[in-house]
Amino acid sequence: MISEGIKHWIRTELFDQVPVSICVIDRDYDIVEANRCFSETFGAWHNHKCYAVYKNLTHHCERCAAAETFADGETRMREELGVSESEGKPTHYLVRTVPLAGEDGAIRYIIEMSADISEMKRLEQEKLTAERLAAVGQTVAGLAHGIKNVIMGLEGGMYVVGSGIRRNNGEKIRQGWRVLEENISRISAFAKEFLDFARGRTPQVSVVDPNRIAQGVIELFREAAAQSGVRLRADLGENIAHAPLDQEGIHTCLANLISNAIDACEMSRKKHRCVVLTTRERDGLLVYEVVDDGCGMEYDVKQKVFTNFFSTKESGKGTGLGLLTTRKIVQEHGGKVSFESAKDEGSVFRLEFPRSRLPEFISENRAEDNNGDRFVHVRADQEDNR
Amino acid sequence: MTAKSSRNRKKILVIDDETSIITYLTAVLEDNGYATCFTTDPGVALASVREQQPDLITLDIMMPRQSGVALYKELRLDSQFRHIPIVFVSAFNRASCVGPESFRRLVPDERVPVPNAYLEKPVSVPDFLDTVATLLDSAGAGDKSHLGEAP
Lengths: 386, 151
Fold this sequence. Notes:
The structure holds 2 protein chains of 2 kinds. Chain A has 3 domains: 4-116, 2-Layer Sandwich (Beta-Lactamase), CATH 3.30.450.20; 123-199; 201-386, Histidine kinase-like ATPase, C-terminal domain (Heat Shock Protein 90, 2-Layer Sandwich). Chain A is of the alpha+beta class. Chain A has helices at residues 4-12, 14-17, 36-42, 50-55, 65-72, 118-166, 170-199, 210-227, 247-267, 299-303, 322-332, 364-369, 380-383; strands at residues 21-26, 31-34, 76-83, 90-101, 107-116, 205-208, 230-236, 243-246, 273-282, 285-292, 336-342, 346-354. In chain A, the strands form 3 sheets. Chain A has a 5-stranded antiparallel β-sheet with strand order 2-1-5-4-3, sandwiched between helices. By secondary structure, chain B is of the alpha/beta class. Chain B has a single domain, classed as Response regulator (Rossmann fold), CATH 3.40.50.2300. Chain B has 6 helices and 6 strands. Chain B has helices at residues 19-31, 45-52, 68-77, 94-97, 100-106, 125-140, and strands at residues 2-3, 11-15, 35-39, 56-59, 86-90, 118-120. Chain B has a 6-stranded mixed β-sheet with strand order 1-3-2-4-5-6, with helices on both faces.
């Protein structure tokens, strides 16, 4: 049992002891009460509007969580960018708005609790940078691998042509020449695809139905799958809300995965082969999954899956950039790619997007509205992609 | 699977999914007096080995359907083929694939020996021929009969 003394302390002191900024605002957005942490972080608040104290604004915020909570009585959690009085620099906050209803049930006040998550955001940014650098390293290694193969092909062509000349063997000269032509074409294609990959394209984020993208990809591959003797079907989750995604980018990712899955089925000697694209959402995590019962992968292949120019497909069928491109696009959405695979059993490739990390969609109108406002709510890692 | 020449010369089986590499290696080997045969499909490689009974195998690592490492394991665990010298010819860095540590991660089975011959693409012709000759010498106790007449 907690003693009365401790209960008293919790009632009277805890408010001022917690390392979270807490304030109470009324329907006019006036701050009527605040704790010590709030005062230390944001400075004077008596007779001030919350938006003035948080963000130096003269009007309430565009997507005001408090206004929404006043309107529907729902508790909300939202990331906001504000200005700390003590630090004087933009600070990331996780803000929770909780309605306070009077005896008549009407919501007269809202408690706003703001935790400074700037350090967490900084670490997240560092992690993203580290992931990008690792991807660059793998890219360079993959490029070297692809080039080594082509150099060997070119040296081979030269050798065979030389051998044909030495022996006055026309057929051998022609054979060597074909090898040279083939490898020059390959290096040209590599260079073009590598440049396309390196340049990338600016993600165009819009709020879209995640299932609709999946349906589009299924339609695109339906005929190709049928021709390959592969059954292709979609198993789309219900009640998946619209999400801010780069529609074309996600389409590219799913197309890469489905195409790979069909190829894996073609390489399998099984009689009935199937590829399933599923979508689902649980606890704020949006998931696309491509499952095939094709040839699967061995351990050494799995180790190299995200290396570009790494391909186990037959010559001329894959350059090895598909999965790397997929990972790049998924990372731009704050998501991750994972897979499981067993030799001769099949593979599962999974794209996971935490909704909290998805890029924020800002319409052209809103972007213009906010042009002079330094508090436009854009994630730091999105800024890199501008 | 195709045999390119034969008759009393040492026979080398070249396994690689790229036809340009097959063309190159078989040309080098034939110019230096070896008989050659090849396959671009690792799925039929075991059948090729059984049919052709090569004296030595050159093996790529990354191929469709089956990797060279998996094929190496099968060959080393089969008493019929265990004695055939194998040289890996791959674009991968040796340490990352068949170095002692990385190889044991790929193939934990201790009965499969760590490969002792590995050439990284692009290979130099003298290195390739030296490696082939050394492996054949070791296997054949100094037998130089593979250095037969060039075609």
